[in-house]
Amino acid sequence: MKARSSSGILLSLVLFTLPAVGKEIRATVVYDDKATEINPAQTQDGTDQLWVTTHDLTRATRFEVKPQGICRDELCFPLPKARKQEFLEKKPGASDELFNLTAFASLVHQPVAHDVATSTWYFGLRSDQQQGLASLRAPDFTLPDMDGKMHSLSDFRGKKVFLVTWASW
Amino acid sequence: MKEKNVEIISVAQDTGGVKDAGKWITDAKATYTVLIDQEHLISKLYHMVNVPTGVWINEQGRIVRPNEVAFIDDRFRKFTDLDSAPYIDALKDWAEKGDKSVYVMSEERLRAKLAPPDPNMALAAAEFGLGEQLYKSGHGAEAIPHFKEAQRLNPKSWNYKRQAYALSSEKDYGTTFLEEVQKAGGSKVYYAPPELPKASDAGNKKP
After folding, report:
1. Which of A110, A143, A161, B101 lies at a C-alpha separation of 20 to 30 Å from B5?
2. Alpha carbon distance B86, B184 (integer Å)
3. So what's the ipTM on this one?
4. Helices (H), B9-50
5. Domains of chain A: which residue ranges?
6. Do B62 and B14 sit in the same domain of this protein?
7. Do B10 and A117 touch (CB under 8 A)?
8. Residues 6 or more apart from A62 whose CB is under 8 A from it?
9. Number of domains in chain B
10. Do A35 and B133 touch (CB under 8 A)?
11. Residue B149 is assigned to a structural domain of this protein
């Protein structure tokens, strides 16, 4: 009985002190090196937190909110049940839920860099994108040649590949 | 260089893309695959810190020699003081013998060399990516603090330094490329010679 009442107090404290949504802003989200303008997004003053609608989440990252978690193609990251309110919030009257993209980045060990002046958030490689090297498998990539034709490392499977970088600088 | 048993994929790490790298590609008249990597994706995925960096990948898509200084000609010999011949010979040996080549690294050694980056390096890559994005969207001045932050978080990356200098000027960073090379310990550190087994060891490798 005692435990229940204290968790009730805790819950109301959390709801009271953590208004997930603060100021409406315009934001540029760079995900997989692709820039998407989001207007409006929401942040809390003095923090790097970025909330976007679930619609904008999919537009910017191709991830979708599903019952089993945050998913894209076969990839799915479950949200810890007890911490759901850190990631998702529905404002009364709003048609779309809001999703905390920066909290999600921290959950999946994805580095985030933020530029305040231009309101730009850059999301780096998630930890699942960095696992290739530990398995000794060469991470796959797809890049254009000078004529814009795309080539993937996986196109070369069955052959030895000498991969070498250079630069004009 | 042309080696019939090995496909060469040469990737330009150039934020400016074809505008900056194109002339070099046209002039080289390469017969192998040359790709343009405006976002330095290969450096990010493979944790590379300099150019040229080479990786050997076998028929199954597995890395058999990870990142190392990889000169396949002597155009920059004056500065590098590195003879490209031993590296080219090693590549030829691999082309012929495949996974049995003495230059293919053991799994243990590969694992030690391919350890995951520390969180600072991952964050450095994000700061660098943000800088590139800002530069490309016309915010060159706003990009500079993020390039500086990337350099601070991963001081071993020459790519972060040199690409940033090339996009504006060394003056914005209060240093010069040559000063930075000196500070790091000279060209032998800047271009560490590849660790190749001695030729006399070749052929004595246990299966």
Report:
1. A143
2. 25
3. 0.90
4. 18-28, 41-46
5. 20-129
6. yes
7. no
8. A72
9. 2
10. yes
11. yes
pTM for the model: 0.86
> In chain B, which residue's Cα lies nearest the Cα of A157?
B59
Sheet holding A34-43, edge to edge: A88-89, A98-100, A51-53, A34-43, A23-31, A120-123, A112-115
pLDDT per residue of chain A (169 residues) written in tens, 0 to 9:
344 444 455 554 444 445 556 789 999 999 999 999 999 999 988 889 999 999 999 999 999 999 999 999 999 999 999 999 999 998 888 888 999 999 999 999 999 999 999 999 999 998 888 766 778 999 999 999 999 999 999 999 999 999 999 999 9
- Give the domain-ending residue among B90, B115, B140: B115
Cβ within 8 Å of A, B 112-171: 114, 116-117, 119, 122-123, 125-127, 129-130, 133-134, 137, 139, 142, 146, 149, 159, 162-163, 165-166
The partner residue sitting opposite B33, judged by closest CB among A141, A145, A165, is: A145
Within a 10 A sphere around the Cβ of B202, how many other Cβ atoms? 16
What residue of B is the nearest CA neighbor of A121? B130
